Amino acid sequence: MAKWGEGDPRWIVEERPDATNVNNWHWTEKNATPWSKDKLQALLDGFVMADSGVECTVTKIEKLEGEATANNRKGKLIFFYEWNIVLLWKGRCNDEEVTGKVSIPNLSEENDVDEVELTVSVDSSNPASEKLKVFMYNIGREKLRTQLETYIRELKADFAKGLILPKKDELNGSELAPVKKDKETVFASGFNKKKLDLETVTSADDSSKKVGGCKLDVKTLKATEKFQCRANELFDALTREDMVTAFTRGYVKQELFKGGDFVYFGGNISGKFEDIVPNKKLVQTWRYKQWPSGHYSTVTIELEQKEDHTELNLTQTMIPSAEYDMTRQNWQRYYWDSIRSAFGFGSFLC
């Protein structure tokens, strides 16, 4: 084991008051499966879905298969869960009892709650059944999503308590009394831990072009983001296939050379690399699959390493005006926030 002042500082091990997992460096895992089964049972079994005088009730959890874990890596919590659930339900319509099922085959951390598939079926075919099937599809599914969202929130907020333990220098005069920390936790990646202003700066310029003979209004997006990591680390996160897969949580195809193709987010984003300057700059032709056929924007990402963080400047031209707001939000949610969450390159509020 290396001593202080010797070897690679990333591998220095410091004593902890609990004598385990020093500095929260090593990966620790807590089995959340039994807790999750109890929580899902409590949230779903007997759950009543009612609206406008129509009421359906979950009568039984026919299937509850899967697993869940909470993990701590370098003081950062990561959750994995995957569940296959089948619910039996019943309701009444026109004095007839109707029964059916709701199948939830893909409740996992790879999908947002609103992306989780819920399939509704009925056990008979008649007007009453069809009416309640429509109710379950339009109303029941959303109420069930609310219960699933509660499970995910409590898994992350309640079950994980105590998974991150205090370091010895966080004790205040006694090995039994940890210092209270403020609400902001900075996940470091080798830089000084100064708090950064992570507010996105954006601007838009209006213009237009013709697509397929029709005029298409387009805009330019400019945004600046700050990440607490080195420029080469952020460049890797944007270009290494394993790291891109980690933050996009989906299928990735990538040919990292000029003219090479890329496909992200299961085919929703695609394009080509037009210019690559390692650790400094990426230029891509870039399109969202729902844009007009054949229409591409140009994305330029420039990285500038500062004393204690890296600044990323994004310029994206030729965004269809109708898609501008959604594109801006998606960069924030699916790129910048996801990169920070996956790799700890920034500041988070607890």
From TrEMBL:
Signal sequence range: none
GO cellular component terms, semicolon-separated: cytosol
GO biological process: protein folding
Highest taxon listed in the record's lineage: Eukaryota
Activator of Hsp90 ATPase AHSA1-like N-terminal domain: residues covered: 29-161
GO MF entry, a single one: ATPase activator activity
Listed PANTHER family: HEAT SHOCK PROTEIN 90 HSP90 CO-CHAPERONE AHA-1, LD43819P
Family per similarity comment: Belongs to the AHA1 family.
Protein name: Activator of Hsp90 ATPase AHSA1-like N-terminal domain-containing protein
Organism: Anopheles atroparvus (European mosquito)
Source taxonomy: Eukaryota, Metazoa, Ecdysozoa, Arthropoda, Hexapoda
